[in-house]
Amino acid sequence: MKERGFTLLEVLVATLIMGLAVVGLLSAISVSMRNAARVTDYDRVALLARAQMDSLLLTRRLPWYSVVQGPFDPALIGGREAGWQARVTPFEKAVVPGVGNSVLERIELEVWWKNGDDRRTFTLDAFRRKVLRADDIAVLGQAQP
User: Fold this and answer.
1) What pLDDT sits at residue 1?
2) How far apart are CA 71 and CA 88, in angstroms?
3) How much is the pLDDT for 72?
4) Less Cβ around it within 10 Å: N or C end of the chain?
């Protein structure tokens, strides 16, 4: 009489193959989870950066050639430390700088956040028209970088 079933060696080989498949699957899931967390952080920071840029675009009295900066609330970025700094410069100077003439301003916004020990950054640029005032003419006359 012939008995049906698996030998011990066949069971061990099948268990080894299944174990390798499970380890490979778990490592792929782990990498996917890390990538998803990184993309989520980037999306959160990008939304905060857009909101900060909108705020800067609406603030008309930003000084030229100086850096303004501030932190973001850690609750908005998943408990991480984050912040921003911006610089406003004239991008296109008026042919004849005079009160009432307009220039094109450039707002450079750098956003940073901590991811463990790494500090990640990205930069946004925006442009807007500005009507010159008397104090702007003095700044334009100075040799600024």
Assistant:
1) 58
2) 18
3) 93
4) N
